[in-house]
Write a structure and sequence with these properties.
Structural class: alpha/beta
Strand content: 5-15%
Number of strands: 12
Largest sheet: 8 strands, mixed
Order of helices and strands: HEHEEEHHEHEEHEEEHEHEHHHHHH
Distance between the termini: 61 Å
Helix content: 40-55%
């Protein structure tokens, strides 16, 4: 599965609209620097994260085509997902002259590389292996590389990677003998997706990771290679479990401090210059009125929702169970976020636990 003879050539003469040339100059990219084996990129999943990631690829000179979907939640049998093209999301791209495709299979047929950014493991499995899915060409694939940036369980990443490894390329292009996959979930949230400063946690063959670096760096600023297939996904769910536990610990301490008569801003100053310092305190403080520009300053709107945190914790607990490992703090965190969701806080940022679970008060 070697990579060799990587060629370079400039992007075709047809430049997509949306001010691409100016964007390239502003960001310091040159279309001539796009490697030929990655020139055509298919992007599936145009949500809050994916839409910005796709735009940054366009800014960097890649020839991008996109697809998005919507889900019918109330399927009468409740046994399978019903997924349809999301014309509204794709129209924002087509209005800018960016090609849109009607299915994952259509994306695959016109791409050198395919990137997916999807809500859950079930969506990933459907987009890759379902009807008109990315692997629906009888085991002969056009793209040489598939990158899944969704937050899913490691088992799903490893299954898709194995499925792809059993396929063949329609045409051997010199730089890859067989199609490959990377699981490359991200950290940084919507602001980092928009700014192109995401952190990628990457699992898969190291040679594929090395080859994919220019593509990933068009969307992020830090890449961390985590090892074999599924290890990127494993790293992401461990990171998010730690983030949830940290947020709950900080929120509990702030609420206790308030009950003991200490202002949250005072505790924040102490935490941030002492052994309790952490991201949940100095960057994403959960107490309304302490830090500007974070979800707690806007009624916990925007940010990373409690629903998504509960989903990621559920992935972590399922993965832990699969290897016979107990995570008591992760399990308690999952119970708390499930409770918040059941109480209607599912769309609020996960830092809302301070107010809605610990009954913390706004800073006056």
């Amino acid at each position: 599965m070697g990579l060799g003879g990587v060629g370079w050539r400039s992007v075709g003469s047809k430049v997509q609209r949306w001010g691409l040339e100016n964007c390239l100059r502003l960001r310091g990219f040159s279309s001539a620097a796009v490697p030929s084996h990655m020139e055509s990129v298919g992007f599936i999943g145009l949500g809050n994260m994916g839409s910005h990631m796709a735009r940054n690829l366009i800014n960097a000179g890649y020839r991008v085509s996109v697809h998005d979907f919507k889900i019918l939640l109330d399927h009468p049998t409740n046994t399978e997902l019903m997924i349809f093209s999301n014309e509204n999301a794709m129209k924002k791209f087509s209005d800018d002259g960016i090609p849109t495709k009607g299915s994952p299979l259509e994306v695959s047929e016109s791409s050198d590389v395919v990137i997916t950014m999807l809500p859950s493991s079930a969506h990933v499995l459907d987009v890759y292996s379902g009807g008109n899915g990315l692997l629906g060409n009888g085991g002969r694939l056009g793209p040489w590389l598939y990158i899944d940036s969704s937050t899913v369980d490691p088992q799903t990443s490893r299954k898709i990677s194995m499925d792809i490894s059993r396929c063949l390329l329609k045409e051997k292009k010199g730089y890859a003998e067989n199609p490959m996959m990377l699981d490359a979930p991200v950290s940084g949230g919507v602001p980092a997706a928009e700014a192109g400063t995401l952190t990628f946690m990457v699992g898969g063959l190291e040679e594929a990771y090395v080859a994919a670096k220019p593509l990933l760096l068009a969307m992020g600023k830090k890449l961390i290679y985590c090892g074999g297939a599924g290890n990127g996904s494993a790293a992401k769910i461990c990171n998010n479990m730690a983030m949830a536990i940290s947020m709950l610990g900080v929120s509990e301490a702030f609420a206790l401090g308030q009950n003991l008569g200490i202002k949250a801003s005072t505790l924040t100053d102490i935490f941030n210059c002492s052994s309790a310092r952490c991201w949940s305190s100095d960057t994403y403080n959960p107490v309304p009125g302490v830090l500007e520009g974070v979800p707690s300053s806007r009624n916990y709107d925007g940010g990373f929702t409690s629903k998504l945190m509960a989903k990621d914790l559920d992935l972590a607990m399922a993965s832990a169970s699969g290897v016979g490992y107990k995570c008591p703090m992760g399990s308690e965190a999952l119970d708390i976020y499930r409770k918040l969701c059941d109480e209607g806080r599912d769309a609020k940022d996960f830092s809302c636990a301070f107010r809605h679970y610990y009954s913390g008060k706004d800073e006056k």
